[in-house]
Amino acid sequence: MSGMSTFVARALINRLLSDNERKSLKKVEKDLQTQLDSAGHHQRGRFLAGFEVCRLFHLKPDPVPETESDRMQSLLWIWKKKKDAEFDADREHYEGLANEYERLLDWLDYAEQEYAPPMPQYGSRT
After folding, report:
1. 101 domain residue, yes or no
2. What is the widest separation between alpha-carbon atoms in the chain?
3. At what angle do helices 100-114 and 66-89 cross, to 10 degrees?
4. Taking 50 as the threshold, does the pLDDT of residue 125 lie above it?
5. Contact yes or no for 112/14 (Cβ under 8 A)
6. d(C-alpha 106, C-alpha 112), whole Å
7. pLDDT given for residue 72 in this prediction
8. Per-residue CA distances from 117 to 12, 29, 41, 57 (Å)
9. Does residue 1 belong to any structural domain of this protein?
10. C-beta of residue 32 within 8 angstroms of C-beta of residue 25
11. What is the pLDDT of residues 10-48, one digit of tens each?
12. What total of structural domains would you count in the chain?
């Protein structure tokens, strides 16, 4: 999954996880929010990259077809535009509200609800 954005990779990997694995991942990442790194800095906003999730759950996903990653990338673009519009409409509410981990969770919820497999092709147009 090299070359694709972290959010796109996470959304595609999230689709491979069972409900129990998703719950476990949320717990791991929630715990990260309160931990300190080796330099003593808080990890608030830290989340696992796609390769870390794969390692955690021993996943070896097949390569993602370009059409699928493009569809998820387009969905991410739409989500970002919606978030920008919400921020512009109520700047005070969103100012400093979400860290990167909170944005990831919001994105994953959105992607799970909005991502649909392509319709099958039946026959051809002439």
Report:
1. yes
2. 65
3. 120
4. no
5. yes
6. 10
7. 94
8. 12, 28, 41, 24
9. no
10. no
11. 999 999 999 999 999 999 999 988 888 888 887 888 899
12. 1
